[in-house]
Amino acid sequence: MFNSAIIKRKAIHEGADICGVAPLFRFEDAPKGFHPCDIYPDCKSVVVFASHFSLSTLQAITNSLYTFVRNIMVEKLDLISFHLSMNWKKMALHQFPSLPLTPMIIGIQSEIMEGVYFH
Prior knowledge:
Elements: H1 4-13, E1 18-23, H2 36-39, E2 45-50, H3 64-90, H4 110-113
């Protein structure tokens, strides 16, 4: 049987530090274009995962260390998403890898987008 515990274990195995499965009602106030059903109309739940970002990189005098670490983290999360998606595809589950970890700001007011990402 495929359940949230299996999903979470697989995400951790792929390198995520934390993982959860969000029911669709959690997105009821999402702006147009950001609701999971805007991407996949038959969506039932959303897998959310994260990885620890070292706060010490924010203490550096230069931004280059932060940028370097951030770029690696973006790649890591994108790869986790891709690997999870491919694994679920083998199980004949409907899945989509997440969009790249970058804010989607074209045509959306910046105050709506502040802090919003797709992972």
